[in-house]
Structures are given as C-alpha cells and as structure tokens.
Amino acid sequence: MLRIALPNKGRLAEEARELFNDAGLEVRVRGDRALTASLGGEFEAIFVRAQDIPEFVADGAADAGVTGWDLVCESGRALSALLDLGFGRCRVVLAAREDSRVRTADDLDAFGPTGAGAVRVATVFPGVTRQFFEERGQAVTLVPISGAVEIAPHLGIADVIVDLTSTGSTLKMNGLREVATVLESSARLIAAPGALAAAGETPTDKQRALDELVMALESVLRARGKRYVMANVPREALERVKQVLPGLNGPTVIDLLNGGAVGTSAYVAVHAVVPAASIYRTIAQLKSLGGEGILVTRIERLMP
Ligand SMILES: Nc1ncnc2c1ncn2[C@@H]1O[C@H](COP(=O)(O)OP(=O)(O)OP(=O)(O)O)[C@@H](O)[C@H]1O
Ligand SMILES: O=P(O)(O)OC[C@H]1O[C@H](OP(=O)(O)OP(=O)(O)O)[C@H](O)[C@@H]1O
Ligand SMILES: [Mg+2]
Questions:
Q1: Residue 304 is assigned to a structural domain of this protein
Q2: What is the pTM of this model?
Q3: Which ligand 2 atom is the nearest neighbour of the CA of 147?
Q4: What ligand 1 atom has the least distance to the C-alpha of 88?
Q5: Where does the Histidine biosynthesis HisG C-terminal domain lie (predicted)?
C-alpha cells in the first residue's frame, strides 16, 4: 500500500484532490471529516495540514505527499520533488512599508539608527528567512509569528516582512511594497529519497506504485495545457496546414474516402495536439485555409 499525504484544507486541498481524481485515483472519503481515504488499487490517502506533510513524508509516516515547495524548504528536511503540479503558484517575498526607504534587500544594511542587525523581520518562514539573510551576509532579528504577517510593520513589531504573495493584492492592501524574491513555490509531489527501498514492504512494489503514480499525474498535467483538433482541409492546402498544426509529431492525415480511390479526395481529415493557449488562432488559421468541420476536444491524458 502506498500512502500519500494530501492537504486536508486550505489553498492546495481542492486542486490536489481534483488532480488525483483526473488521474484515476478517485478520493473515496468515508465521511465528511474522514482523515483517510482509499484512492483505489494500492493507493491510500491521509488528509493532514499542508504544513505537516514534509515532516510526515520525511519520517516515513507517508510514502509521498502533496504540499507547497515553500513548506518543504521551511521544514529543512531532505525531500525530493518528483513533480511540479502546477497549482499553488506563489512567491515568498521580502516586503517593506510603502513609505519606507527600503527598495532593495541591500537597503537593509543602512537601516535604523543602530545600523546592521537592527532590522526586525516578521515571518511565518523563520527557516527560509534565516537562510536567505545568511546567504546574503546580512544580520537580522527574526520575529516569528503564525499569521497575518502583513500587519506587523504597522504595529511597530517589525521593520519588514517575509511572506507569501501571488497576485500582490494583500501586500498592496496593507501598504507594503515587494522588495525581493526569497523563493518561488508551487505544489509538488514529494518523497523521501531512498525511503521506499528501506520500507518493510517489498521495495520494488512501493517503488513501482510510486513510479506509476508519477506517470499518471504527469500525463494528466501534460494534457491540461493541450487540445485535440480535428478538421477536414483541402488536400492542396496540406503543406500550409502542417505549418499551422505542428502537433506532437506533425498532424495525423487521414484520407476521406468518399467513393474515390485512396489519395484522390479533395479533402483530407487532419488530427493534431495543439497548445490550448493558442487554440483560437489555430482555428482561425484552419478556417482561412479552407478547413471545415473543425472539432476541438479536451485530452484526458497525454504520454509522449
Ligand atoms: N495566495 C496564494 N496563492 C497561491 N498559493 C498559495 C497562496 N497562499 C498560500 N499558498 C500555498 O498554499 C500553501 C498552504 O497555504 P494555506 O493558506 O492553505 O495554509 P495556511 O494559511 O498557511 O495554514 P492554515 O490555513 O492551515 O492555518 C502555502 O504554503 C503555499 O504553498
Ligand atoms: O498576493 P495575494 O494574491 O494577495 O495572496 C497572498 C496571501 O495569500 C495567503 O493568505 P490566504 O489567503 O491563504 O489566507 P491566510 O492568511 O488565512 O492563510 C498569503 O498568506 C497571503 O496573505
Ligand atoms: Mg494561507
């Protein structure tokens, strides 16, 4: 049995569950507040706080987990990210009051009447923050707090903060200016390196299950940004159509057998996988090349 730790609530919970569902690992919860669930086959989920997942995976309480990279870094544990899951994108940043003189991290050196070392940094990421300033050779005083960090500079308990941002609206709303990026984060699938080989169960079974999980999630993530396009296009426009539809290995071209001999029909069907972001342009280009019966569908999984 491969046990996977998933966030029970908060920013990452819903998208993690959706991704696993899309990959065929349907979360079958026994009740509203159940802490474990079967994912079918040899997979089971435990639902815990995103903050605790790095510890659980590092200690072997779970074989793999889904959590934010920021939390993995903060834990300081040796964990590998097997996959970037693409959601929960945010940054840990250094921010100062808009009305302060601090515009870059270097400005902290000249901060305050007592000089370097006097800068107080409020954060829920003391580990990541300490490492950031250590690497820069700057002495700071950490003010660890557990939430609502943005208010600290206005309360006079800190000069700057290190906190999460994505759209930037919380910083702005609180009169703060982003000064430097400390860390870029997104949700990752994590595992402890070498842990599966040491587990009681036949190591190859767990490792194989984990490999299958990675492949299943990867194929769903790859498919999300793509669309499958089908169209009937004039045979004489085929070369230009190929420019529009590069596809994975170029489009699949299928003869339309409307009574005539193979290779003689005026139209051919073309199928291709294209980036979802430019689908509107692909359709317009196919249209202008005489394309008809254009059909676009989502793809569930994609394995190259
Ligand atoms: N604004 C955001 N945009 C994108 N991802 C975010 C954002 N805020 C947090 N995250 C990601 O989600 C993770 C969990 O944050 P979440 O808000 O769910 O928990 P929390 O508020 O830190 O803790 P809790 O609500 O359990 O007390 C973060 O560590 C980060 O990886
Ligand atoms: O740049 P933005 O898009 O404004 O996002 C940043 C905010 O999002 C997170 O808080 P969240 O909304 O998760 O609330 P929380 O403080 O209860 O965790 C984070 O702690 C920031 O406060
Ligand atoms: Mg939050």
A1: no
A2: 0.90
A3: 16
A4: 5
A5: 223-301
